[in-house]
Specification:
The chain has 78 residues and is an all-alpha fold. The chain is built from four helices and no strands.
Length: 78
């Protein structure tokens, strides 16, 4: 997750850099990181728990935009 395993943190802290390059990694290939809605709060979830075909379908179902749109500066910096 973006924030790390918050379920195991006595106090939430910054697990990842949250710098732009770190975020862009997911934006470039969201199908590698997407998860079923039933797993959103599962901090133990790993992308490999869901096969690639299902993750590809989730990208369609969730109406995730194109790579070009997701990596456009204005997507995050409005």
């Amino acid at each position: 997750t973006c924030h790390g395993p918050v379920d195991k943190m006595p106090t939430v802290y910054e697990e990842n850099t949250l710098q732009m390059e770190w975020c862009i990694q997911c934006h470039r290939e969201p199908e590698k990181f997407i998860r079923p809605k039933s797993e959103v709060f599962n901090m133990s979830y790993r992308p490999e728990d869901t096969d690639q075909a299902e993750r590809d379908q989730l990208k369609v179902d969730y109406k995730i935009r194109s790579r070009e749109m997701l990596t456009s500066c204005s997507t995050c910096h409005r």
